[in-house]
Design goal:
The chain is an alpha/beta fold. It folds into two domains: 205 residues, CDP-glycerol glycerophosphotransferase, N-terminal domain (Rossmann fold, 3-Layer(aba) Sandwich); 180 residues, 3-Layer(aba) Sandwich (Rossmann fold). The chain is 38% helix and 13% strand. It contains 18 helices and twelve strands. The strands form two sheets. Strands 3-2-1-4-5-6-7 form a seven-stranded parallel β-sheet, with helices on both faces. A five-stranded parallel β-sheet has the order 10-9-8-11-12. The relative contact order is 0.13.
Length: 429
C-alpha cells in the first residue's frame, strides 16, 4: 500500500467544513443501522493502529455486526477487500452512505479518520494512538500565556461550541485508555470528564501476546520479519520520535551524536545483530539516503510498527509512547534523549518525570548506545534478567492495567450483544 501523507487543513477546507453544517444536522437526524459499525485510522490514509487491530478481531469473532473500514486511500480499500473484509472508499456513493448510516464509529486519531460531518448522530469511540508522554491537545495548543492566545482561544471556544466538529480531535463520545494512572493526562489533554474515559487497553497490544496470530494474508510483512529473524540472532529496532516543529530530523540524530555508520554496522555484524530503523514517514527518504548498502542496518518501511515490535529483542527510542506498549513483553529498552532540553522546550513539556517512567539506560550519543546494546545482548545470552527488568514491570503496571485481551474487552463493552440485534447470523461472538 502506498504511503500517503495526510494534509493539514487549509483555510479553504476550514471554511468548507463550516458550510457543511446543514449536512451535519441532517446526518444527525438520519436513522442509524444498529448492526453497522465503521472504523478509520490515521486521518483516513492508513490501515493501522488500534482501529486496525480491533477491526481484525471483530471480523474474526463478531458475526452479528457488519464492520466496514473507511478510508480516503484507494490502496487501503483494495487491500482490505483483498483479505476478505469490508471496506469503502469514503468519497464514493457507497462510502458516504455507509458512513451516514453507521451506528458506531471507531477512530484512532481524530474524527477526520472517517469524516467530521457525516458521522453526526453516530456514537464515536476514540481508541487513540498511544499513551502520551509529551503534552497534547489543550495542554499544548491552548496555552494562555499571552493576550493574543487568550483572544484566539476564546474565539476557538465560541466556534467549537456552535460547530463542535471543527475541533476534530475532541469529537468523540467515549475514549479508551490503558490505565487509571493516565486519567489526569487524558482528562487535561481533551478537557473532558472522567465519565467518558474507559480503561480497557489498546487493541494494537493484542499483538504483544505470544499467542497472537500474524496471518500473512493480513500482515504480508511477516515473511520478511521471519526471514530477518533467521538471518540475524538479534533484532534491534530504533523508533525515534518525529521532531515537530523543531528544525531537527533523523539525520541530526545520527550525525550530531557520534553515529559512525560504518563502525556501528561492523559492531552489529560481530554481534550477529541487525538494527532496523523505522523513521517517521516524512523522514523516510532522508533515512534511506543516509543508510545505503549496509549489511546490518536496514530501513523498516511498513506503516504498522507492531509486527516489528513482536520480533524486536531490544528497542531503542527517545520520547515515543511506543515504549509503554513494548513494556508488556518486558524486553530491554534503551532510551536516547540526546536533545532532551531542546525537545522539552519545543514540544511543550511532558506529563511525567522522564526518568521515572523510562525503565532503561539513558544514552546521550551512539557510542553509549552500542555499549548498552552489547550489555543487553550479554544478559540475553546468559538468560539472565538485566538490572532494569523489575523496573520495567513496575512502570508497565502504571501504564498498562491489562496485559492481554484488549480487543475482546472493547467488544464486550461497546458492541451490542447478538440477542439484542436483528442478525442474519445467530452465532455468538
Amino acid at each position: 500500500m502506498a504511503n500517503i501523507t495526510p494534509k493539514r487543513r487549509s483555510l479553504f477546507v476550514f471554511i468548507g467544513l463550516i458550510l457543511l453544517f446543514p449536512f451535519y444536522l441532517i446526518s444527525k437526524l438520519i436513522t442509524k443501522d444498529k448492526q453497522l459499525y465503521i472504523f478509520g485510522s490515521s486521518l483516513g490514509y492508513h490501515f493501522a493502529d488500534n482501529s486496525k487491530y480491533l477491526f481484525l478481531y471483530v471480523n474474526e469473532h463478531v458475526r452479528h455486526i457488519r464492520s466496514v473500514f473507511i478510508s480516503k486511500n484507494r490502496d487501503v480499500v483494495t487491500f482490505v477487500k483483498s483479505i476478505g473484509m469490508n471496506a469503502e472508499y469514503l468519497y464514493s456513493f457507497s462510502g458516504l452512505r455507509t458512513v451516514i448510516r453507521a451506528k458506531k464509529a471507531f477512530i484512532s486519531h481524530s474524527i477526520e479518520d472517517i469524516h467530521p460531518v457525516l458521522t453526526s448522530g453516530s456514537e464515536v469511540i476514540q481508541l487513540w494512538h498511544g499513551t502520551p508522554l509529551k503534552k497534547i491537545g489543550y495542554d499544548m495548543d491552548w496555552i494562555n500565556d499571552n493576550g493574543t492566545n487568550k483572544i484566539r482561544n476564546l474565539i476557538r471556544n465560541m466556534c467549537y461550541s456552535i460547530i463542535p466538529y471543527l475541533y476534530s480531535s475532541r469529537c468523540f463520545d467515549k475514549i479508551v485508555i490503558s490505565s487509571d494512572f493516565n486519567y489526569p493526562s487524558f482528562k487535561s489533554a481533551f478537557n473532558i470528564s472522567e465519565t467518558i474515559i474507559d480503561v480497557m487497553g489498546q487493541s494494537r497490544n493484542d499483538s504483544m501476546s505470544r499467542d497472537y496470530n500474524f496471518d500473512e494474508k493480513c500482515f504480508p510483512e511477516i515473511k520478511a520479519l521471519e526471514h530477518l529473524k533467521k538471518r540475524f540472532e538479534y533484532i534491534i529496532s530504533w523508533l525515534p520520535t518525529h521532531r515537530k516543529p523543531a528544525p531537527i530530523n533523523i539525520l541530526n540524530l545520527m550525525n550530531d551524536y557520534k553515529f559512525d555508520i560504518d563502525a556501528f554496522n561492523e559492531n552489529l555484524r560481530s554481534l550477529n545483530a541487525v538494527l532496523l530503523l523505522k523513521p517517521h514517514f516524512l523522514e523516510l527518504e532522508i533515512a534511506e539516503n543516509m543508510i545505503k548498502d549496509k549489511s546490518n542496518i536496514l530501513i523498516y518501511r511498513e506503516v504498522d510498527p507492531y509486527p516489528l515490535l513482536r520480533f524486536t529483542d531490544i528497542l531503542i527510542t527517545d520520547y515515543s509512547s511506543i515504549c509503554f506498549d513494548f513494556l508488556i513483553m518486558n524486553r530491554p529498552i534503551i532510551f536516547t534523549p540526546f536533545d532532551f532540553d531542546d525537545y522539552i522546550k519545543n514540544s511543550g513539556g511532558l506529563y511525567y518525570d522522564y526518568d521515572e517512567v523510562t525503565p532503561g539506560p539513558k544514552c546521550y550519543d551512539w557510542i553509549e548506545v552500542m555499549k548498552e546494546i552489547e550489555a543487553s545482548i550479554s544478559f540475553i545470552n546468559r538468560r539472565e534478567e538485566d538490572s532494569y527488568a523489575k523496573e520495567r514491570v513496575r512502570v508497565n503496571g502504571l501504564f498498562n492495567k491489562f496485559n492481554d485481551g484488549f480487543s475482546k474487552r472493547i467488544v464486550d463493552n461497546y458492541f451490542v450483544k447478538s440477542d439484542d440485534a436483528q442478525t442474519k447470523n445467530s452465532d455468538p461472538y
